[in-house]
Amino acid sequence: MSDRLPCVLMRGGTSKGVFFHDRDLPADRGDRIAALLALLGSPDPGQIDGLGSGTVTTSKVMIIAPSRDPAADVEFTFCQIGTRGATVEFSGTCGNLSAAVAPFAIDEGLVPAVEPVTVVRMLNANTRKLVVAEVPIESGKAATTGAYRIAGVPGTGAEIRLRYFDPAGAITGTLLPTGQPQEVVQLGDRAAVHVSIVDAANPFIFVRAEDVGLTGTERPADLRARPEVLALAEAARGYAAERLGLAEHAADAWRTTPDIPKMAFIAPPKRYVALDGQPIEADDYDVAARMIAIGEAIPAYALSGAICTAVAAQVAGSVVWDAIPADRRGRARVLLAHPSGVMDGEAVVETGPAGGLLVESVSVGRTARRLIAGAAPLPPNWRERGTGATVTVSTRGGD
Fold first, then answer.
1. Going by C-beta distance under 8 Å and a sequence separation of 6 or more, which residues neighbour residue 286?
2. Where would you tag: which of 40, 108, 147, 255 has the fewest CB atoms within 10 A of its CB?
3. Whole-angstrom distance, CA of residue 278 vs CA of residue 240
4. Is residue 227 packed enough to be buried (19+ CB in 10 Å), middle (13-18) or exposed (0-12)?
5. What phi and psi values does residue 162 have, to the nearest 5 degrees?
6. Are residues 193 and 98 in the same domain?
7. What DSSP string runs through 288-310?
8. Do both 239 and 222 map to the same domain?
């Protein structure tokens, strides 16, 4: 194996990550994990000696390969690299970064470019779920210029339309893993907290913001200044992880499954000012959400979160359903507000023969851009840096 690994740094939506061809990474599982940690710069929180940027949204990896499944063109494996320890999480997905998979596949010659739009069928190896991307093409390459704007990314770009098929039960096998749209639980010293656990694209626990003293209009800095809120967020994740069988005890979730399940605080629409200074009126969106990821209050919102939230918005009695004004409930398209602005998700949900909900698909729009391509040299002691640390690897969905 070469000590210089070809890679591409890409932005997908509001996330950034390092993309590798599967063929270029070590075949041995232990070596692969060690290489990813060394290349990103973990477990150093600042990732100063690696390609990561020290935040949850920029410490990510995508591994791409031709698909062995005839239903897909390529397969992608998402890896969340820890910034607070040597952890590599292979479960779930990153919806934002998956927006960059199709442009990568086209520009790397894995999928032929067809103008004006190339359709790329992508299989998420973590969840075994299919995603179809429609990518605009210019001069034989994935287009990057266009008029489409997403909150949290400067400027505009070419719209990549993503459709996630059958996203329900991505990790747990069912849309409502507890069988209930909503329940009241104790989190920390809060005795009556309304929560919903929903699994679509990724399992989420949605927490009613007012129950923990939040309005739903907070900025990341506001949440970071309240450590008790971050502790409640992790308590909610731990509760959900134990209920879902992803951790033996709630207190183990931080160590054994730091990224899955995900969580968000949910609130009804209120006026607020986005991070770029633009006012967002209550009539501009349907539901407010503030997400905590691996202990960090993030400035935008996970695309898998938008998918799960759009589905939860059609689950009568869920925390998300309750937060939406009554005259807007049940719509396929949901406008969701996060600290950077508003994003949308459109869910096609039907009632099954037994009365349960069947999620056919969810579609969202994103932009993506290749930032740099080259070869990353492995540090001389890369195996020691990986195997000498405490590494947590979750592979529930396959890797």
1. 269, 313, 324, 325, 328, 331, 334, 335, 336
2. 147
3. 35
4. exposed
5. -110, 135
6. no
7. EEEEEETTEE-SS--HHHHHHHH
8. yes
The pLDDT, as a whole number, for residue 382 is 87
Instruction: For residue 164, tell me if it sits in a domain.
Output: no
d(CA 393, CA 399) in angstroms, rounded, equals: 10
pLDDT at 399: 34
Residue 354, domain CATH: 3.10.310.10
264 and 143 housed in the same domain: no
Tokens of 362: 């969810």
**Is the peptide bond preceding residue 261 cis, with omega within 30 degrees of 0?**
yes
Consecutive 10-residue averages of pLDDT for the chain (399 residues): 89 95 94 92 90 90 96 95 84 87 98 97 90 96 95 93 91 92 90 94 95 96 94 94 92 88 97 96 97 91 92 96 95 95 92 81 94 94 65 42
Question: Is the whole model's pTM more than 0.90, yes or no?
Answer: no
Are 128 and 233 part of one and the same domain? Answer: no
Domain total for the chain? 2
CB 74 within 8 A of CB 105: yes
Residue 261 within a domain = yes
What pLDDT, on a 0 to 100 scale, did the predictor assign at position 238? Answer: 95
Indicate if 101 and 223 belong to the same structural domain: no
Instruction: For residue 147, give the amino acid letter.
Output: A
Same domain, 149 and 254: no
Same domain, 338 and 206: yes
CA torsion through residues 237, 123, 27, 377, sign: negative
CA distance 209 to 193: 9
Q: What percent of the residues of the chain are helix, what percent strand, and what percent coil, each to the nearest 5?
A: 20, 35, 40
Domain with 11, as residue range(s), is 4-159+368-394
CA-closest candidate to residue 187, choices 228, 145, 146:
228
**Residue 137, helix vs strand vs coil:** strand
